[in-house]
Every structure is written in structure tokens, then in C-alpha cells.
Amino acid sequence: MTPEKPFGLIVEDDPDLSNIFSEAVHAAGFETEFVLNGRVALERLHTVTPHLVILDLHLPEVSGKDILAYIRSEPRLKKTMVVIATADAIMGESLRDEADFVLIKPITFAQLRDMSARLKPAM
Amino acid sequence: MRVNVQKLVSSLIDVSATDPDDKRRRKLLSILLLGIAASTFLMLLVLVVLVLAGNNLEIDGAVWIGATALLFGCSAFYWSNRNPAIPGWVTSGVFLLFLMVLFMFGDTPEQLAGGRSLFVFTIPIIMASILLFPAASFIFAGFSAFEIWYLAVQAGTLYNTFAAIGFFLVGLASWLSARNMEQALREVRTINKELDQRVADRTRELSEALTRESEQASQRQAILQGIADGVMVMDTRGMVILTNPALIRLLELPLDKILNKNLAEVVRSPKVEPEDQEMILRSVGYNQATLAPIRVKWGVRTLSVISAPVRDQKGRAIGNVAVMRDFTREAEVEQMKNAFVAMVSHELRTPLNAILGYSEMLRDGFYGAVNEKQANAAERILNNSSRLLNIVSDLLDQARIEAGKLKFDYKPFHVSDLTDNLHSVMDKIARDKGLELTSRIDANMPGQLVGDTHRLQQVLVNLVNNAVKFTDKGSVDVYIYKVNEQHWGFDVTDTGQGIALDDQKHIFDPFRQLEGTVTRSHGGIGLGLAIVKRLVELMGGQIFLKSIVGQGSTFTIILPFELPRKEEKEGEK
Fold first, then answer.
1. Is A44 helix (H, G, I), strand (E, B) or coil?
2. What is the pLDDT of residues B113-169, one digit of tens each?
3. B213-326: what fold?
4. With an 8 Å Cβ cutoff, are B366 and A14 in contact?
5. Structural domain boundaries of chain B?
6. Does residue B70 contact residue B103 with C-beta atoms inside 8 Å?
7. Which of A60, A115, B81, B216 is 20 to 30 A off residue B171, Cα-Cα?
8. pTM of the predicted model, to two decimals?
9. Helix (H) or strand (E) holding B324
């Protein structure tokens, strides 16, 4: 699968926020998809290779921290950029070295859109 | 045996009289009478022995009669002298007159009036000054002069004028010495009386002080036994020298594991984490008062411990007293409250973020064109949810600070970034109120410092935000400067309404704003300054407020930051 646009995966358990986040990433020129569950996200990552993952930390079943660890351990996902989007500032800060960026909620539409635009790879 | 003789003699010469002079004179007379009686008795005894031994003494019968009469006379005077009903001077006077009469028969009139026995008349003169009163010597000098005149007439000899003058001179000498003696005695008596009074006073004071002391001691003991807080007093070596039942109960240790043990031994218990042991030893085993109570876990309990030095009257530290309070329940409640606030505010953020996102997308026409009114409404939703978010953030911070969960991240930062960021966050807000926000970094500031820039930003934004909130016209000025090599000053000055002196005390209390009306018009829940203060304190700094009502306020923060080491310096941007 070689999409024309770069692919962004939004992992966020709140449906409204995942909607806003995917709109923002989409507005930055990404093809987007969102998942609301940690386990589903992990399964999805076994088959897709996103350019960008917007990752919440507190997720049902599998935590964002574990998902991040999987991405970092999988050679196929070496180029995947991870932006943590969490309300848990302490945990977010602790993962600053492993993630590419850490955003602490509240995150505005414009903020995420502009950041995604900057992270967009040249196709 | 000797004691008995002494007692006997004392009881013989003792008289019952209240006036000390009278008593002294009567005693003296008693001694005289006893002396005369004893010698007369001895003389009679010797004579009787000699006669019985067969010596043919040619003794006049008058000697026997006289001696016996003298014995009886002495007894009579002695009795009269001891009788308090008869004035002392009467007995003494009659005794002296009796002596004078007796002397007339002691020798021939010639010898008495001008010869070898003339001296006997000085005896009553001297005795009178002592037994009666000092000036009585002159009276008896007169009697003696009269007596030798009478004897001279009887003997048909010339009157011895020189002897009469001599009597008066003896009288004068006796009067002077007796008077001096009496004066000295009086002085001694006065001194004694004063001394007695003083001793009595001291004794009374001492006994009162002792009573008071023991009352206080028992009061203190009762307090110590009765209070619910655990108390222990340590000497300068850290040895526990006093404790109370509450402490034994709180620490769950037997008395002999506390009393006369070193504090380090007392806290070295498996019930106490090593960190907490250290904390107790650091704050209690130190000769200065703990500024704020420390909290330690002791077994199942949480204890709040405060200590202060015990000083003597000269202010020297002679030990420490530590008071431990059972804080278990409060700690649990506090823990629950903080966890609750953290959870709630965390959970509030997600839906608020959604409101924020949707209103922003609406306003920016993401879902299609909106007219001005609609964009305005979306903007209002955005602003209000932002405010709500800030409140939630404040609550979360406060809860974290109270739970001690706030962590600081010390890294080198550019001082100019502080003001840049401040302007980017606050310029619009200030401008919207028609205020000017200015900032100035003093020339003596270094380019970089090491600190938690995020928390410092938060402090400055909070202070500027607060200043803007309470200022209606004029400006808000930020000034950053060097205090000394380790301390840096941050002034936030506004031209607002100012804060009354009474209110300045409470300005840093959580959940407090000044007067209801102000609270209404300025929004927020009054956590901003409390958080600022706690953050500043946690970073090891202090905050001061200077304010004049109607002129404005200046909040000054002094913070310790280190200069970055060379290899630590962040690359130039």
C-alpha cells in the first residue's frame, strides 16, 4: 500500500478528541485513521506503517507507554514519528526522550495541525 | 551531768520578765544574791568544821547571828526578785540600801568615815548603775556621802569632803559605763530583732517559693500526663530525659526503650523507613526550632513532629523538646482529597479539550463559513473553556504541591526566553485590558541560569496575570536583576488598586481573594498566588509584597539559581 498522502494514526480513547485530532492531522495533509483502544492500536500497528502517531497514554487494555515501546522496538517502524498527547504531565515528561514530541492537554486544533505540518515528510 | 548543773544554775538565775532590761537586771541581782549566800554558807561551814574539830576560836556571837541573818536576807531578796509582781527596781533598791546599812557595822566609824573601809561605799554606787538604772549611781553617791557625814559626826572626826567628791566621780564613771553598756545592748537587741525579722521573711519567702514550685511542677506533670500529643525532652547529647504516656502510645515502644536512650536509638526501629529516621534526626536533633512540622510514617501512624530548643535563663540551648502529634487521620483525608482533586481535574481536562477544539474549529471556519456573530460566539466558548481549564490546572497544581508530587527539572535556560515567553502569553491579555506590559533585564544579569524554566515561567505568568487582573489602567512591569552571586530578583509591578495592609497577610492563602465583590469581578478561585508562593518556596526562594492602596503593588521574588558550568551551556539559538 503506497498512499499518496503520508499516513497518520491517532490513538485516543476519547471519541471527540480523536475526532478533533484526526481533523487537525488531516488538515496538515495526512491520510488519517483513529483507534480508541490500546489493544486495537497495537494490532493495527502490526499491519500499517504510519509516518506519524498521535498517542494518548491512558488507554483501555494496552497503555500508550507499551505502544510507544513496541514502535521503538520494531525496525519496520523506525521512521515513525510519535507525538504523545496526554493530560498526565508527569508521565508525559518521563517519556520525552523516547517520543519525538510531548504535548500536554489541552491541545488546540491549530497547535496539532501546525505541528503535524512540520512533521510531514516530503513525498 | 555538766548539762544538769548548767541547767540547774540557769533555772536558779532565770527570772520571768518581759522587759529585756528588767530581766537582765534581775538576773544580775540573782547572781549577786546567790554568790553572797553561797560564800556566807561556805564561811559558816568552815567555822562549824573548825569548831567541831576542837579549835578554840574566839568568835563573837554576832558573827553567827549576822551570817545566819544574811542567809535569810538573801533568800528574802531572792524570792522578791523572782516575783514578777514586785517591780525589779524595788528589790534592787531595798537590797542596795540594806547593803549600805550593813556596811555601817562592818568596821569602826572612824575607819568607815575616812580610813581603810571608806572604799566599801563605792560598791553600792557601781551596783546601782547596773542594777537600777545608769543615773542611779549619783543617788547612791549622795547616800554614801550622807552616810560618811553621819559616821563622821558619830565618830567626832572631820568630814571627809574629798571622799564625798570621790563618790560622785565614781558615780559619774559608773553612769557613763553603764549607760554605754546599755546603749550597746540596745543596739545589739535592735540588730538581733532586725536579723530575726529578716530570717523570718526569708524563711517565709522560701517556703512560699517552694510551695509555688511544687504546685507548678505538679501542674506541668498533669499537663504532660494528660495531653494527647507525645512529648520528649532531650539533653544536649540527644539523650531522652523526659517523656509522657502519649508518646509511649504513639511510638508503641516501652518506656525503657525511650527514656535515657539516645534519640538515634529510639528512631532506629523497623517501623520507621530509613528516610524518615534521617528526617527526624535532622530536624529534632538540632538546636534550632523546626520551621514547619515534619511528617513521618511510624508504623501504621503518620506523625507530625515539631521541635524547639530548650534554653536556660541566659538563652543557652540546654536541650531540645519534640512534640509528636498523631496525624494519621488528617494524612489519610489529605491524601484522599489530593487524589480526588487530581483525578477530577484530570478527568475534566479531556472534555474541556474537546470543547476547546470544536469551538476553535467552528471559529476558524473549519466546518464551513460562519458569520461574525457565530464566530464571536465560538470565540466566547473558547475563552470561557480556556478559563475553566486554567482553574482546573491550578487545582491540579495545588493538589500536586500539597501531595509533594511536584518535581523540578533543573536545566540551563536563557534569561531572555523568560521575557519572550511572558510577552507571547500575556501581551494580548494585557492589551485587551488597555494595559502596557513591559519587561527589563538588568545589565548585570548573566545570559543563562540553571533552573526549572517551566516552573519559573509558571510563576511569572501567574504573577503577571494576577497583576493584569487587578489593574484597570496603566502598566505592568517586569524587572529581572541580580541580587548576589547566587540569588536573582524578579519584580512584577503594577499600577493597580493596591492591597490593604490587613489583606496582605492573607494574600498567599489558597482559595482566598479580597472581599466578596472583588471575587465576583475578577473570576478565578484564588489559587494563583498560593501556587506561586509554594512554587517559589519549593525552588528555595522567597516572595515579598509591597503595596500601597490606590498606587499599585510590587511582588518581588528572590530565587537561588546557579550559573551553568561551561559544558552545560545550552547552544546559542
1. helix
2. 777 778 888 888 988 888 888 899 999 999 988 888 888 888 888 888 888 898 899
3. Beta-Lactamase (3.30.450)
4. no
5. 2-188, 213-326, 408-572
6. no
7. B81
8. 0.45
9. strand B317-326
